[in-house]
Amino acid sequence: MKTSFHEDRWVGLFLSFIGGAMDSYTYIHYDAFASAQTGNIVLAIIQAFDGEWGSVGKKMLSTLFFFLGILLAKFLIDYFKKKQLHFWRLFVLYFETLIFFLVSLTFLNHQTSLVTIIIAFTAAIQWISFDKINGLTYTNLFTTGNLKGVATNLYDFLVTGTIEAKKKFIHFLLVVLAFVSGAILSVLLYRLVGAKAILLVSGLFLSLSLSETYLIWRFFRHEQI
After folding, report:
1. Are the CB atoms for 130 and 89 separated by under 8 Å?
2. Which of 90, 94, 95, 199 has its CA 20 to 30 A from that of 6?
3. Which H or E run includes 133?
4. Which residues contact 14 (CB under 8 A, 6 or more apart)?
5. pLDDT digits (tens, 9 = 90+) for 52-108
6. Cβ(123)–Cβ(66) below 8 Å
7. DSSP H/E element including 132
8. First and final CA of the chain: distance in angstroms?
9. How many CB atoms are located within 10 Å of the residue 75 CB?
C-alpha cells in the first residue's frame, strides 16, 4: 500500500458518491447546498431581492465557513507534510463520520443555520484533503469541473485516439457517475425516511474509514515483518 491512500480510485469514487448524497440532502432538507457555493451565492442574491433575509444569512454563513474549511485543510496539509505523517486524512474520514451522525440527531438536525455551517466547513476540508485520484485531479463535492473533464477528454480521444485522453475521459466519467448515483440514492432515501437519510452519509464515511484503517494496519504490519 502506498502512503498516498487518499489518491486510491475507490476512495475517490466513494467520496464522490458521498458528495452527491450530501449535496442533495442538504438542499432538500435545508434549502442550501453543502458544498456548491456558486449555487448558494446565486440563491442568496435572488432571495435578497425577495427580502428573504433569513435564507440569505444562512447561505452566506455556509459560504464563509466553506472558505474557512479550505484554509484549515491547507494548513493541515502543510503541517502534516512537515511532520511526515502520511495517514492523517484517515482522521478526516472519522471526523466526518461523527459529524454526520450528530447531524442525524433530532435536537441538532432542526438547527438549520448551525448544521449548514458545520456541513459546509466539513465538506471544504474533504474537498481539499482528497483532490486527486492516481495523480489526476477531480472534485468530489460538485461536478461541473468533472463534466468539463468528461467532455474535453472525450473530444481529445475522438480526435487523437491517444491512450492518455481515453484514461482521463474514463476517470472523469466514473467520478460524475458516482456523484449522480449518490444524489439519486440520497433523494430516494429521503423520500422513504425523511431527515434520517443523512445517516446514509455517516454510514458510508464509517465504512470507508474502517476499510482504510484495516488497509493501513495491514501495511504497517507488513512493513514490520
Report:
1. yes
2. 199
3. strand 132-133
4. 178, 204, 208
5. 888 888 888 889 999 999 999 999 999 998 988 778 999 999 999 999 999 999 888
6. yes
7. strand 132-133
8. 15
9. 11
Contact of 198 with 205, CB cutoff 8 Å: no
Using a 10 angstrom Cβ sphere, with 0-12 exposed, 13-18 middle and 19 or more buried, the burial of residue 5 is middle
Cell reading at 187: 433523494
- State the amino acid at position 14 in one-letter form: F
| For the chain, percent of residues with pLDDT exceeding 90 | 63
How does pLDDT run across 209-224, given as a tens digit for each residue? 999 898 888 877 776 6
How far CA 122 is from CA of 17, 71, 76, in Å, comes to 16, 12, 13
Cell output for 184: 439519486
Model confidence pLDDT, tens digit, residues 159-207: 999 999 999 999 999 999 999 999 999 999 999 999 999 999 999 999 9
Q: Are 124 and 70 spatial neighbours (Cβ–Cβ below 8 Å)?
A: yes
Note if the pTM is more than 0.85: yes
